[in-house]
Amino acid sequence: MPELKRLHPSHAPAVLAFELSNRAYFAASVPDRGDEYFDRFTDRYNALLAEQEAGTCAFYLLVAEDGAVLGRFNLLNIENRTAELGYRVAEHVAGRGLATETVRELCRLAAREHGLRTLRAATTHRNAASHRVLTKSGFIPIGPADPADLGGLPGTWYQCDLVLLS
Fold it and tell me: How far is CA 57 from CA 47, 98, 116, 125, in A?
């Protein structure tokens, strides 16, 4: 059974393997991270850990029993009991309900562990799977996303009132 775990320094090799093995799959629906992301992975990973330590973000991994990363689920820009949700799941587990189940779990955790009341998420128009995950997880569309927020692509902002999920 996969487990949602807080990002830890020891996860770095598994996160890199996850990102590399799913790069083309992710690029089909979200802007590619670019070669620089992979060239500077250690620096970027350490920056994520520092952001998490500072409390401005919280990063979680969905980890299989063998230690492989199946998905990344992030609470970004935590401020005033609100955060942005970001997530991605591995191609080989997509379409099985894991993203929806984990987003729901993260919503409960965001309220309980981080004291959050509202989550927002933006997704590109072409990412139909993400629209379904958000809708099934209790998010409602609240308006257009600025293409600058989505790597130059048009999209939609969604929002979830965590108090209603309690």
Answer: 11, 22, 12, 25
